[in-house]
Amino acid sequence: MASLTITLERDAPSAVAYPPSAWDLRGPVEARLLSPPDVSLWLYRISLGAGSELRWPGVHGDEAVYVLAGSLEVAGRPEGSIVESGGAVIVESGLPARVFAMSDCQLLHFGSTFAEPPADGPYGAPSAQGHVVHAVGPGGVYAAVGDGRDTRFYADSSCPTCRITLMRTGRGAAYASPAHSHSQDELIHVLSGEITLGRSTLGPGDTLYVQADRRYTFTGGSEGFSFLNYRRDASMHAVVRGGEPKLEGGATHGFRHVADVIDVSPRDG
């Protein structure tokens, strides 16, 4: 498998087996696989009909569902935890959980082939107790906004009970990233605008897989861009010719603590 792989949405295959057998889906669904089939991270774009229910079993890793359109209700306590478009649901590992489509929904579902959370990263293993579902609004948990930039973490691996990272970032004008690498495998899914890597340009709906420690650079289109970035664990960011690697995350970079989040405990389980 190449260390850098692009999946164009128009070429993404239908996922006839979604969800995998470990989950339980009730109601109409259409799904497409937006990640390479032979890597440890996966991403599905799914369309859920109103009233559909997606259930997680008690054996799974940290997972995330980003709401592109529509709204989801997260079952549990407190009651009425609703996630609207631009928000995300973070389901912590090993936790039975349920979400309901309150309307027709367009969702992005991120996860890993590993059923256990990582234990060897910068934060070590997460606590085995007190797992919840994070119902995160569009504001995110941490944010850095200004000078044409808007970056929001829905999870940054620093939570005591999960290690997942899901971030939305974007620029309002042309941008060129420095050559850099990350210590974790990652999926980058373009939400708006476009980004270019070498001779390849990705637009809305396209996804980039980057293997850990692979150096790369990208440029954003003149009208700006936004994308989601998913990793299984905390990552060290290394800029070529830029000094020592630095731990990534809102908690470590001095981002504003927005805390647009409700922690939901399942009713049963």
Please summarize what this structure is.
With 269 residues, this protein is an all-beta fold. It has no helices and 25 strands.
Which descriptors apply to this entry?
269 residues; mainly beta; Jelly Rolls; 2 domains; ten-stranded antiparallel β-sheet; seven-stranded antiparallel β-sheet
Low-confidence stretches: none
CATH architectural designation of the largest domain? Sandwich
Q: Proportion of β residues?
A: over 45%
| The level-1 CATH class of the largest domain | Mainly Beta
Number of helices: 0
Task: Explain how this protein is built.
It is a single chain. With 269 residues, the protein is an all-beta fold. The chain has 2 domains: 13-139 and 260-264, Jelly Rolls (Sandwich), CATH 2.60.120; 143-257, Jelly Rolls. Helix content is 0%, strand content 48%. It has no helices and 25 strands. The protein has strands spanning 4-7, 24-26, 29-33, 41-48, 53-56, 63-69, 71-74, 81-84, 88-91, 97-101, 105-112, 133-136, 142-146, 149-156, 165-171, 175-176, 180-182, 186-197, 200-202, 207-210, 219-231, 236-239, 246-247, 256-257, 261-264. The strands form 4 sheets. Strands 1, 13, 14, 15, 16, 18, 19, 20, 21 and 24 form a 10-stranded antiparallel beta sheet that branches. The chain has a 7-stranded antiparallel beta sheet with strand order 3-4-11-6-9-12-25, with no helix packed on it. A hairpin with a 6-residue loop joins strand 22 and strand 23. The radius of gyration is 17 Å and the shape is globular.
